[in-house]
Design a protein that fits this description.
- Helix 1 packs antiparallel against helix 2 and helix 2 packs across helix 3.
- Helix content is 85%, strand content 0%.
- The chain has 2 domains: 79 residues; 45 residues.
- The protein is built from 4 helices and no strands.
- It is mainly α and 127 residues long.
């Protein structure tokens, strides 16, 4: 019997997700299709109502619960991040800029040298 209740629960969950999708798409369609009949504020209210209803319906499913748990975990991890100070950011940026200039100069020298070697090989060197 327990297996049937899990199957029924997943069936209702699937129906809930389909209904949430219909609500979201319905809000979008109403927003754009009622462009001539309603001003922007009522259309925006319809869009937000459809989106909110879809989010509320999705949140009641296992899928929505999983998404919410993931977002809460991401928020906890974000609090653990040690952000660099302004001075560290400026110093790092300057080091990268100097490195880019050095690599660009090196690549220019390599390009210049290879182009001269190729010109010598094909006979257009001195003249």
């Amino acid at each position: 019997m327990e297996f049937q209740s899990e199957e029924t629960g997943s069936r209702y969950e699937g129906l809930s997700l389909v209904a949430a999708s219909i609500l979201l798409i319905g809000g979008l369609v109403a927003f754009y299709s009622l462009d001539g009949q309603l001003s922007k504020l009522p259309r925006l209210a319809i869009l937000l109502a459809g989106t909110g209803a879809a989010a509320a319906l999705t949140a009641r499913t296992a899928f929505g619960t999983g998404i919410w748990a993931y977002l809460q975990g991401a928020r906890v991890e974000m609090r653990k991040v040690v952000w660099p100070t302004r001075q560290e950011s400026v110093q790092t940026t300057l080091v990268i800029a100097v490195f880019v200039v050095i690599v660009a100069a090196f690549m220019s020298l390599v390009d210049w040298g290879l182009s001269h070697v190729v010109q010598l090989l094909i006979g257009k060197g001195n003249g």
